[in-house]
Fold these 2 entries.
Entry 1:
Amino acid sequence: MRVLVTRRWPEAVERALGERFEVVLNDTDKPLSQSELVAAMGEFDVMAPTVSDRIDAEVIAGGNRVKLIANYGVGFDHIDLVAAKAAGIAVSNTPGVLTDATADLALTLILMAARRAGEGERELRSGNWSGWRPTHLIGSALKGKVLGVVGFGRIGQATAERAHYGFGMKIAYYARRESEAAKALDAEFCPNLDDLLARSDFVSLHVPGGGDTANLIDAKALATMKPGSYLINTARGGVVDHDALADALKSGHLAGAGLDVYPQEPQVPEALLDLENVVLLPHLGSANAETREAMGMRALANIEAFAAGTDLPDRIA
Ligand code: DGY
């Protein structure tokens, strides 16, 4: 069985894959072009892409040999599931194993934005720090503040737990239905997004990307947010209208934002680059060694199940 791995994976996983299958690795780690992805559909049995590959209908129509797309990552808005299903291609992802890492990063962004850590580091490195003073780079406390969690799946819950137990934040959440797990956190269920936005001091986004959530946080939603509040996004860039966000940060309506994801990565919306009150990270949510290896092993488990003709542990289409 021929497997194409589109980017470098942790060494242990590449080795494990190579011991079991005929694997083509991407030693250069450069993203494949659209035409290379199209061609691969006719040359491999399994394609193992990441969020940096756009597996759209044109790629899927490129050939009829690939029968499994084993995504390295939990989010799958870069894969056209409808086209895959129509072409009889199974699709899997890697849920669960990156929950803690992503929640850790959401807290990193909350803390960095609240405590103006990026601004402080830039000031110091540029030689402009003039020393301690009582009014220097004053941020916001977290204790007692309301964290509004938008989307209360695994990562949203893990973020809420860290914020509540670790930092004494109150939790409110917006989700389709009330969650049992929320009860232990004494979290308030807000079935209406506007209500959540209006009462939260920090809003952290944890919904999947794609058509249903595109620009969920638009100019109107941002205007609904509490004056002086913060927006945190570790989900997908397309969930936020970044021009409107830049306006809300410039006007001071929002005190700050922390972003790890962008609509057209690796491009970062120009309007944000000059703003001091936004923390910008390069999609690091799952980037720790343990997690990245676990993600690869999970993708491998799906490829092995496919090769054995058994049910995929993480089938999404
Ligand atoms: C995912 O898995 O979807 C992340 O965004 C990449 O770690």
Entry 2:
Amino acid sequence: MEPLIGIDLGTTNSLCAIFDGEPRLIPNALGEYLTPSAVGMVDEDQLVIGAPAKELQITQPNKAAVCFKRLMGTNEKIRVNDREFTATELSSLVLKSLKEDAEKFLKVDIQNAVITVPAYFNDNQRKATKLAGEMAGLRVRRVVNEPTAAALTYGFHDQNADKKILVMDLGGGTFDVTIMEIFEGSLEIMATAGESFLGGEDFTNRLVHTCLEQKGYNFEIAELKFPQMLARLTKECERAKRLFLTEESTTISFPDESGKSTDKIVQLSRKQFSDVNRHLMKRLERPVTKVLRDTDILPDEIDDVILVGGATRMTIIREFVCQLFKKEPNCKFDPDQVVALGAAIQAALIDDDAAVDDMVMTDVCPFTLGIEVVKTFGSREIGGYYMPIIHRNTTIPVSKEDVISTIHANQTQIQIRVFQGESRKVADNIKLGELAVSGIPRGPAKQEVFVRFCYDANGILDVEAYIPETGKKFGTVLTNHVKGLSNKEISKAIERLQQLKFYPREDIKNRHLLLFCERVSGDISLFERKNFEDVVDLFEESLSSNDRDFFARVRQDLLICLSSLGHPYSEPKADSE
Ligand code: AMP
């Protein structure tokens, strides 16, 4: 059987796992399970992915991109060095790197993958994720919702449970809440709600805004004029955010405009952190209330609250859970790993692995899908109304049909506009695409056209229209309002990406160390710097020498030097190969 890996393609970090009797994580070239979802360019346009790219983003933000998952499914261009990429292209580079890591670790070719997406990802975002997989040379066998994958991990390890579980998934950029029921190995997703623009990064950004305000900077100006300062400040705020887990207050070193450390500080307290993020906490409440309402379940009927995604480590999130559900969250699995492990279990389900023989899983469509219709009020016809075809939280896969009709006599065409969302008016929903129906036989108004929506297990929608009188069918591909790519454009993009060279794998650890030194160099005093940079230069030099003893000695000296400067370098784990 061809190996099928599970990938959690996160906003901040990505992970990869395989099922082998049970789900197992796969380490990357640095021996780590978490690969930052970051893409950078070093020396003459060589690509670095993951931790080295994240380091690069701090010292030279114009040479690296992070958080691009937030732009999936849009045509927005992201600049890396002097090249432009879409979020799909950058994601495909991360996926390619994970694929190669898995191939090296498992010593087999990998061509098939299950990729997870936030439950609330819309059709465009899901299609873009699938396309990113294809661009990376992967056949995407299933796009699975992140909370569903998390639920699978719990379900797999607790197959005899009889429980109602709420999964709260707060990653770097998205928030999903799912209620499911486990009963004798069957796992039923009952309802899902969420926001695709709310995550841990927003909490960090609030701190960044607070620090800038305190020092008299405007965010937009800082973003435009001092990107290095902003990148460094974000890193500092990220550190502070994590410290609030244990500390009541902390200080942030406010960088200068070129991003170097200064002795200016900002004092921040946990209370202040809660205060500036109050409106974000309010936004978190909404999807929770919605899933409880949709399933008619009371908070105290929930047996377990499972936390997923790095940002659920924040104390304010745990307090929120305790307050609402009157119980501590269940943290049996690492919130960073649970989704990737579940993706591998989903892969085992697809492969009919004997170890998951007794598991059955049903998922739901997280949002309502429908079309625009015209309503008649007396003699007035007003467009812009929404007619749902598949209601939110319907079990998937699902296929539903409804009938629309012409408004005018002798009308031969109807433009079907497809939307996703819960509002009465289409203007407040997300437009997914259009389908043109022509050749309707002339005649009086109210000629019927059948519209069928098929929503598959990947969460991807197919729309078909059918004129009963002529038997003519239209569909099934939607023309997205976000410009879809033709096959030719996709091939061109793949070709362009293939021309880019990945930084040599055997040197990736050294490159990571060098980029780390680059950052430290900006942090230490000028007095310390001269000496330090001599050691770094020597290390760089030793990389091209064939004398392995010399290289090992210099590397060791550099590590000692970093420790003595108060910036110890945590050595990547044992080589994964
Ligand atoms: P994910 O997309 O699941 O990898 O989640 C990444 C998000 O989790 C980022 O916004 C991180 O800042 C946040 N995060 C990770 N660890 C912690 C922590 N210990 N405390 C607060 N936030 C964290």
